[in-house]
Write a structure and sequence with these properties.
Radius of gyration: 21 Å
Order of helices and strands: HHEHEEEEEEEEEEEEEEHEEHEEEEEEE
CATH architecture: 7 Propeller
Number of helices: 5
CATH class: Mainly Beta
Shape: globular
Number of strands: 24
Oligomer: single chain
Helix content: under 10%
Largest sheet: 8 strands, mixed
Distance between the termini: 23 Å
Structural class: mainly beta
């Protein structure tokens, strides 16, 4: 059991000066009495989400959206984690829903076994060793119609198929692959999406107020406002590797992280690159105000034994000061957290690296800093791969107090790839991976 004191412990002034109100509220709640006497990071609490049939969950929010969940339970809420203002409570968000890949005729097809699934914002509470769902908000269009998790555009996104990869499904211009989440002071939410990639402003009731996308995306037919306000170079995002992380800075700006390097000038260059980008957006100006260059560590450093650079990803960014972030580098097996300062002099917005015709591209540079590119400096805070009990595919990170973080994994709704994901009756063969929130005590204050 995670020990709590009856009183409150003050938040360090240096930390409190630079955090959103929602985070400060969480930090000033009762917190662990003392830091670990040793200097090793360790798990001090673990809670698991129980089985909730996906159809029951979805239809309670929007009746009739899911006619058959094929035995899939609620999952995928580990796409991000944001403090909800009360001790042990967090906002989470699902991704696009259950999906997998099956090879047909030598080519992989993207399957959506529950095509009516509507992505949702989910409020959870850590109670002992259990995660409880307190409430949920389905994402909807301006008219209140549910969005789906289906891909948006033919030729740009993967073609969607039925659970067994035999039947094509329609594209959906309202479709969202939601990932990062923060809550603004007015109670509305900001989310990021992988398809666009895009930034979403969502009302307190789950209605999409605006979707900000790269210039030139030309997404038509959506049931909510689509605004081309992001740099056009982002059109070169890898398939399924758009925006993943989202942070809310104390001044109100948002920082979005591309999960992976852009495919510039092509897929091979993107797969080989260790250079990705952070994009800063001002909700007041409704515009991008900065862009930063972020450099991954070598893949073998992040995940010893892994040699495929394309496995490197960012899935979470968290504000820890006025101009400081925690940035999570991961593979599907492990993750590391770095402290990064956003240097004004490192802004590359609108320069040559936003021109897709620049050769060599930013992504092709073997050593961007040596080439004069201002790369953000970083300091390793914790290697979660060395912490016993931390599962793979950690995607969400949140602050609990000045020396404790909460992390959540994405269990992919219990899905696996391949024809064996479903049995002969079309029911899920569950992977057995559960959604878990863990509290990790750090070796030092953030």
């Amino acid at each position: 059991m995670f020990p709590y004191t009856a009183g409150r412990r003050p938040v360090p002034r240096s930390l409190a000066a630079g955090l959103p109100l929602a985070v400060l509220a969480a930090l000033t709640a009762a917190v662990p009495a003392s830091a670990s006497p040793d200097k090793e990071a360790r798990v001090v609490r673990a809670a698991t989400l129980g089985d909730i049939p996906l159809a029951a969950f979805s239809n309670a929010l929007l009746p009739g959206t899911v006619d058959d969940d094929r035995g899939v339970d609620l999952g995928g809420i580990g796409s991000d984690l944001y403090p909800a203002g009360r001790k042990g409570e967090f906002w989470t968000v699902t991704d696009r829903g259950p999906n997998g890949q099956i090879k047909v005729g030598g080519s992989k097809r993207r399957t959506f076994p529950v095509p009516g699934f509507d992505p949702a914002i989910v409020r959870i509470r850590v109670t002992g060793d259990t995660l409880r769902v307190l409430s949920a908000l389905p994402l909807t269009t301006t008219s209140g119609r549910p969005v789906t998790g289906l891909p948006d555009q033919a030729g740009r996104d993967e073609a969607p198929y039925s659970y067994d990869a035999s039947t094509p499904l329609p594209y959906d211009p309202d479709g969202l692959d939601t990932e990062g989440i923060v809550r603004a002071a007015d109670g509305s939410f900001w989310l990021v999406d992988e398809y666009g990639p895009s930034l979403l402003h969502v009302s307190t009731r789950g209605k999409v107020l605006a979707r900000y996308v790269p210039k030139g995306l030309e997404l038509t037919g959506a049931g909510y406002p689509v605004v081309e306000a992001l740099p056009s170079v982002l059109l070169h995002r890898k398939i399924n590797r758009g925006f993943e992380g989202l942070a809310l800075l104390p001044g109100g700006d948002l920082v979005m992280a591309l999960q992976s390097p852009l495919s510039l000038p092509d897929t091979d260059a993107g797969n080989a690159s260790r250079t990705t980008r952070l994009v800063r957006f001002s909700p007041k100006k409704r515009a991008v105000v900065a862009e930063y260059v972020y450099r991954f560590d070598p893949v073998g450093v992040v995940d010893p034994g892994e040699d495929d650079t394309s496995e490197l990803k960012i899935s979470s960014v968290v504000a820890v000061g006025r101009e400081r972030l925690l940035v999570q580098e991961r593979t599907d097996r492990t993750a590391r957290l770095h402290v990064v300062r956003l240097d004004r002099a490192a802004n590359v917005l609108g320069g040559r690296w936003d021109d897709a015709s620049t050769s060599p591209s930013l992504e092709q540079l073997d050593d961007p800093a040596a080439a004069g590119v201002p790369v953000l400096a970083k300091r390793l805070l914790v290697d979660l791969g060395t912490v016993a009990g931390v599962p793979g595919k950690i995607e969400g990170v949140a602050l609990v107090d000045d020396d404790t973080i909460a992390v959540v994994n994405d269990n992919d709704f219990g899905m696996t790839d391949g024809a064996g994901a479903f049995d002969a009756q079309g029911r899920l063969v569950d992977s057995g991976v559960e959604t878990k929130v863990l509290y990790v005590r750090l070796p030092r204050d953030i």
